[in-house]
Amino acid sequence: MEKIANIIKGTITLLFGIFVFLFSWKSHPELLSFHEQNQMFLFSSDYFSERISIAGGLADYVSEYLVQFFYYGSAGAAIGTLLLVLLQILTYKALRSLTETWQVTPYIMSWLITILMVLHMMDENTLLSFPIAIILSLLTYLSCRRGGWICQLVASLPLYWLVGPAFIIQVALAIADSWREKSWKAAILPSCVLILVAAGWFYACRMLWIAQYPWDTVLAGINYHRLTIMSMEAPALQNAILGAMVSFALVLPLLHVAEQISPKLKSLDVSTATVFACIYGGIFVAPNISNNHHDKNTHVILEQLYQMRKGDWNGIIAKAEEYKNENLPALESPLSANAVNLSLAMTGQMSRRMFDFPQTGIQG
Q: If you average pLDDT over residues 294-320, what whole number do you get?
């Protein structure tokens, strides 16, 4: 039975990976191109020192190294797919470690996190450093499990500086693991120590080494999102992902204890998973899918920039005709008008069709 379950899980993960790869590569190559054009990477010690000098620096460095390969759409799609698949697998392993018998619930939880991340990555300003930071936090927790809560405590100190606020995931998992392994009274000490040390270290790092950044920016993650420094707040989906990870980690040990008190609760594994799927799916997933979550006008501009890089002039004109029928405001922007006019000029249609499309006049 367990072998069949593993085959089913592996098949689902494989199908998910194929879908994400094709969706990224064929449907939204403009996002990959935008990331590659707006990030830089240098093989130099000075550049590494500069990146590692802020909290979350290692996640940023790894992210920028990987993004340079986004120049090739297939490579960028493969890297993004690998990170999402790895996120799902590691999340399941971490949550599964918190309970001995519950299997469906942590599995569904891992997919909820992954789906939220897919939606979040559709935002062109979400940086690859965010999923990388979560993956590194999960790897740290899983690597230090055998060492107990003291090992987790020691690992959390450098982890914050390496990945940023996502280290809270490792701390929450370590606390939850201590609840599972010890009695409630015995778990109070490690839980309090982990919380106090993590909070104290976070405060000390901010005051001593990154005091130039506002508190809101530091809490949101300096380089998890391009607009965080300007808006000084984290995107809603980023908070939802971190909040879900922490809440899932803290709920599973409670289910484990409840099952020990009443063994019949084990039969509620599927029902519990369904409840979590409905709650989180209804609050976070469904609204973001139904509202398209992201601005289509922005994606139209990114698509035109990508087609200009490829020299796909006929493609720009064809898309402009399609979007003109939809009355998209993006076509009235100077950037879009210039892209369409350049395409018309490159295909010898400028004199005949210029005023078939919106013009911006003296605006550019």
A: 85
b/e map of 68-93 (b: 16 or more CB within 10 Å)?
eebeebebbbbbbbebbbbbbbbbbe
Residue 1 to residue 325: CA distance in whole angstroms:
54
The CA–CA distances, whole Å, from 197 to 26, 168, 200, 210, 250 equal 46, 12, 5, 18, 18
- Read off the tokens for 146: 């055998």
- The whole-angstrom separation of Cα 155 and Cα 170 is 9
- Determine contact, residues 149/70, Cβ cutoff 8 Å: no
Residue 311 zone, left/alpha/beta (φ > 0; ψ -120 to 50; rest): left
Lookup result for tokens 């979560």: 134
For 135, 218, 286, 287, the CA distances from 282, given in Å and listed in that order, are: 25, 30, 5, 7
Q: How confident is the model at residue 188 (pLDDT cuts 50, 70, 90)?
A: confident
Each residue of 248-268: pLDDT tens digit?
888 877 776 666 666 665 556
Both tokens assigned to 314: 């006929």
Q: State the Cα–Cα distance between residues 161 and 52, nearest whole angstrom.
A: 8
Segment 274-298 mean pLDDT: 64
Half-sphere exposure of 243 (CA within 13 A, CB side): 12
- Cβ atoms of residues 181 and 253 within 8 Å: no
pLDDT of residue 89: 96
pLDDT for 282: 64
How many angstroms separate the CA atoms of 65 and 52, rounded?
Answer: 14
Q: Which amino acid is at 199?
A: A
Token readout for 285 is: 């997933």
Low-confidence winner among 114-123, 223-232, 290-299, 307-316 (lowest mean pLDDT): 290-299
The count of other CB atoms within 10 Å of the CB of residue 275 is 13
Can you state the angle between helices 104-121 and 73-96, rounded to 10 degrees?
A: 150
